[in-house]
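Hi D.,

Good news: the full-assembly prediction came through. Inputs first.
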Amino acid sequence: MSSDHASEIAETTPSKQCLRLWLRMLRATRSIEGDIRELLRREFDTTLPRFDVMAALYRKPEGMMLSELSRELMVSNGNVTGIVDRLEDDGYIFRGTRNGDRRTSHISLTGNGSETFEMWAKAHEVWITRRLRDLDEAQTADAIEIMKHIGQSAEGVKR
Amino acid sequence: MSSDHASEIAETTPSKQCLRLWLRMLRATRSIEGDIRELLRREFDTTLPRFDVMAALYRKPEGMMLSELSRELMVSNGNVTGIVDRLEDDGYIFRGTRNGDRRTSHISLTGNGSETFEMWAKAHEVWITRRLRDLDEAQTADAIEIMKHIGQSAEGVKR
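Then the structure:
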């Protein structure tokens, strides 16, 4: 395998630059995520996985299957089930079970869940803006295009 | 709090653009991380947290304290301890304990650990290059600067 690797590196021009970009992306993303985790905890006594679940459901007012939610969040059904259970206990999520199997549940936000998420989302937007507002508009637009391109260039590694 | 939020949003120009950039960054980063996790598993039967621990130690040939490693990786000591234990069992890490307390261990890569990591790192560079090589050099350079800027603009939310 190592000879394959060597020839692939030779073909593409700036592999060290690619690596540098990746490490910078990772650092920037983790740093913002760290802030968001801390602010969610402090301001709303909640977590990023809970925020992500509520965000996904907010985008689908008609609700969705638990399996669909897992796929969208790219986490295992097991993890999502635990988070959904607790959000249901808190009155944020309504769950309709089919055949008594909780994994095949259809879930959606309750009115309270929807209002709560709107409050979280407003604050989240302020926090993100605070972190990114130093960029001028052209830089922001460039960065959006580049990140879009990177996100779409997935070769689709088989899972 | 909500009136504060509203005035802050009004001050900064493109808060929806900031949010758009953040979501694109997150998607791009998660997509690459997903590929790397899968490739590490498939090619080397290892995990991203193990890779990250080995990478941090590889950069410090003199080794470091476990607490220093935790800080660098921004994870709890407990998590790192488990990963380090397993890497030690595999013969990749050498650990010198002080006063029998494993949490105050001084750790470094063994020769075998160092060689193994070099192999992983070469493959990792190829994978990252594959994902990012569609960008031209100017785009890559721009993106590096923007990500650097974002990573440094942390307000330092108190933990």
